[in-house]
């Protein structure tokens, strides 16, 4: 815990003694279930019920049994309950590595989307982004089948119709949730408030990590859909991960996270008994709203208003009721936030740049007018910034690229089309790039992703195979090959590819 002195450092305050690996985890997490001492086996539901030896899942409440084995993993404790299911801490029996098992019970409202969720999990995993929580697997699990029985995966094009099937995901364990983080620092509030801008910088560096994760997903046409505190995880070194890409959209988040433009969509989901309208409606602008909500919660819970009030205009822009009036991308939102934070606030005696004060609140532009409004309020990102963050540049096909453009530019253009979900145009742009440079590894991968998004799985497989021929040491390309083979129903070959990816990851 941090001391109440000016030498208070954030990362130090998280560290646990290195020789004390079995101590109670920090931030009030529950101690692990003592499997050695337990005499009767119970499930981890509330209240917990006795279960028969060998049973993995409780027949009455659907919670996993403490100490039960799921493959090579032993269930240890319930970490928490989410909108769609429960999260359990489990341990790999050989490596003793802690992992998290999430179990989604069969639910007619969301089951039809499980296959789409699984595909997104795979796409996101293949990005291997440092701020996206690694998800090791996402599969259908049939608890009634005898242990050790293998069963082909369900037809990937058909909706899940069986009731005795769970969606099971395995992901990295992160020791700190956002709630633990806030609770921890609230105890040291006076010390961190003494640090003012320095602590603000630390908090914004965490928000920026979440921003890079979202931006990477958006660049692949995937929005998160539920940036709630349970999906923000950290470690003791100030590393932040966003969890549950692909899975978070299986249920709508509640207020205050749900963006206002989705209230009607949520009601439609309730009426129709399916999450499909929400799955399809969430956009990067919705993610931006949720990230800004989280940012505001973090700042207001840990800092004095005077320490972050100069950021309010930026936050208000990201929280605008009208998605078209928010920032054009998460990258720009984070850029503006950090730039504004770097400017001295009036509490330190300096005046603020009157950037967003000219925003005419009554003037509601229609979608598409936003970029004009944005340019009025603050200078557009510099050329250098756009080069660094290509997602922020506005491309129009007509004025885009002459035929002699180098392969890199065509590939970037393909990325723009992919982001705007124009997958056909993305394929064409990638093919142009490959005509100029047939050995462009990243472009073969991107072409595969675009074909995959169009559900042209043979094309995707062909592109991934070309990528693998250029670089067979990238585990990502093997995962992608596996995904394409799975989609084509070639599950045995897919398994070999996943195994190869695991070997390369090891
Ligand atoms: N990878 C993880 N490492 C550590 N704790 C986790 C992990 N994933 C989830 N948890 C804990 O388990 C709780 C439940 O997680 P779950 O993903 O089921 O729901 P959630 O993220 O809280 O909410 P939602 O269902 O809206 O996404 C989380 O709030 C968090 O406390």
TrEMBL record:
Keywords: ATP-binding, Kinase, Nucleotide-binding, TPR repeat, Transferase. InterPro entries: Kinase-like_dom_sf (IPR011009), Prot_kinase_dom (IPR000719), Protein_kinase_ATP_BS (IPR017441), TPR-like_helical_dom_sf (IPR011990), TPR_rpt (IPR019734). Residues 1-16 have a biased composition (Polar residues). It holds the Pfam family TPR_16. ATP binds at residue 102. TPR repeats lie at residues 407-440, 441-474. One of its GO terms (molecular function) is protein serine/threonine kinase activity. Its EC number is 2.7.11.1. PROSITE patterns: PROTEIN_KINASE_ATP, PROTEIN_KINASE_DOM, TPR, TPR_REGION. Residues 1-31, 361-388 are annotated as: Disordered. Coiled coil: none annotated. It comes from the Bacteria. Residues 73-338 form the Protein kinase domain. This is non-specific serine/threonine protein kinase. It comes from Ktedonosporobacter rubrisoli. The lineage of its organism: Bacteria, Bacillati, Chloroflexota, Ktedonobacteria, Ktedonobacterales.
């Amino acid at each position: 815990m941090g001391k109440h002195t000016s030498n208070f450092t954030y990362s130090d305050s998280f560290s646990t003694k290195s020789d004390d690996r079995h101590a109670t985890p920090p931030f009030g997490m529950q101690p692990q279930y003592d499997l050695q001492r337990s005499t009767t086996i119970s499930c981890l539901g509330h209240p917990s019920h006795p279960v028969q030896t060998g049973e993995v899942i409780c027949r009455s409440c659907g919670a996993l049994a403490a100490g039960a084995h799921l493959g090579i993993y032993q269930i240890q404790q319930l970490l928490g309950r989410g909108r769609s299911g429960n999260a359990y801490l489990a341990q790999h029996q050989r490596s003793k590595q802690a992992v998290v098992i999430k179990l989604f019970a069969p639910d007619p409202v969301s089951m039809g989307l499980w296959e789409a969720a699984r595909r997104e999990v795979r796409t996101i995993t293949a990005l291997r982004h440092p701020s996206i929580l690694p998800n090791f697997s996402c599969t259908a699990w049939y608890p009634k089948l005898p242990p050790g029985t293998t069963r082909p995966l369900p037809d990937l094009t058909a909706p899940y119709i069986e009731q005795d099937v769970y969606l099971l995901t395995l992901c990295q364990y992160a020791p700190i949730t956002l709630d633990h983080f806030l609770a921890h620092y609230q105890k040291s509030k006076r010390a961190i408030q003494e640090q003012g801008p320095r602590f603000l910088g630390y908090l914004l560096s965490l928000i920026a990590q979440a921003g890079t994760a979202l931006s990477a997903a958006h660049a692949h046409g995937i929005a998160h859909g539920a940036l709630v505190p349970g999906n923000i995880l950290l470690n003791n070194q100030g590393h932040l991960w966003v969890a549950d890409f692909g899975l978070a959209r299986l249920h709508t988040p509640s207020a205050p996270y749900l963006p206002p433009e989705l209230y009607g969509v949520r009601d439609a989901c309730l009426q129709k008994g399916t999450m499909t309208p929400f799955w399809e409606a969430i956009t990067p602008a919705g993610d931006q709203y949720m990230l800004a909500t989280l940012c505001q919660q973090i700042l207001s819970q840990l800092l004095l208003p005077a320490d972050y009030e100069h950021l309010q205009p930026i936050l208000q822009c990201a929280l605008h009721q009208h998605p078209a009036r928010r920032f054009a991308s998460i990258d720009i939102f984070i850029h503006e936030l950090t730039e504004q934070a770097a400017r001295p606030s009036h509490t330190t005696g300096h005046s603020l740049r009157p950037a967003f004060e000219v925003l005419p609140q009554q003037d509601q532009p229609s979608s598409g007018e936003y970029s004009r409004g944005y340019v009025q309020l603050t200078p557009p990102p510099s050329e250098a910034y756009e080069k660094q963050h290509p997602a922020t540049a506005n491309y129009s096909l007509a004025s885009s690229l002459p035929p002699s453009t180098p392969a890199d530019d065509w590939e970037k253009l393909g990325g723009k089309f992919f982001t705007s979900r124009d997958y056909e145009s993305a394929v064409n742009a990638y093919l142009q790039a490959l005509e100029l440079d047939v050995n462009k590894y990243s472009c073969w991968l991107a072409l595969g992703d675009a074909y995959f998004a169009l559900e042209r799985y043979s094309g995707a497989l062909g592109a991934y195979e070309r990528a693998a021929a250029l670089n067979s040491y990238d585990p990502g390309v093997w995962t992608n090959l596996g995904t394409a083979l799975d989609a084509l129903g070639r599950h045995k070959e897919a398994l070999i590819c996943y195994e190869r990816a695991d070997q390369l990851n090891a």
